[in-house]
Amino acid sequence: AWRPAGLYLIPVVLALLSKPPALVFPLLLFGAVYFWDTDRNARQALKQVTPALLGCAATGLLLSHMTGPVFTPGDHSPALYRITQMRVALHYFTSWFAPVHLSADSDWQVLPGILDPQALAGFAFLVLVAAVTLDALWRRRQA
After folding, report:
1. How far apart are the C-alpha atoms of 12 and 29, rounded to whole Å?
2. Measured at the alpha carbon of residue 36, what is the angle toward residues 126 and 129, in degrees to the nearest 5?
3. Angle, nearest 10°, between helix axes 9-18 and 25-36?
4. Which residues are CB-contacts of 116 (< 8 A; sequence separation ≥ 6)?
5. Per-residue burial over 94-116, b = 16 or more CB atoms within 10 Å of its CB, e = otherwise
């Protein structure tokens, strides 16, 4: 009911102002529209999520403009941070099914490289997620 007026974007913008990773919202919304509404194709789903995409892009530009040029998010390389995020994704996925080792402050360290066993496990997890997603897309097209 909030979609025609764009009111559903208010919580999204507030989330973006709180934590920039909320920029994934248009991608998640696209997946929801594309996979759960059986009468849509990719072009129609993209048309449906365009307001969310534009709203998130505008908010992202605002956040980028508001961030100072000397901001440094940490003392590690962005590549090692991204490698660590693969392991974090696996942790949160498994925590959904077996909520153990939960902590508000995990004190995790950035992984030393892509050949770290935890990084390899995270990478394998993301490859598996991509394979399952592509299989679901293929099966949907066959139906």
Report:
1. 11
2. 10
3. 140
4. 83
5. eeeeeeeeeeeeeeeebbeeeee
Distance from C-alpha of 126 to C-alpha of 33, rounded to nearest angstrom? 22
State residue 38's pLDDT score: 64
- At 32-45, the pLDDT tens digits run 888 777 676 888 88
Show the tokens assigned to 71. Answer: 């901001």
Summarised one tens digit per residue, pLDDT across range 29-83 is: 998 888 777 676 888 889 989 999 999 999 999 998 988 788 777 778 888 988 9
What letter represents residue 52's amino acid? A
- Distance between terminal CA atoms of the chain? 30
- What is the total residue count of the chain? 143
Cα(126)–Cα(122) distance, integer angstroms: 6
Give the C-alpha distances (Å, rounded to integers) separating 48 from 23, 37, 51, 61: 17, 11, 7, 22
Distance CA 3, CA 64 (A): 26
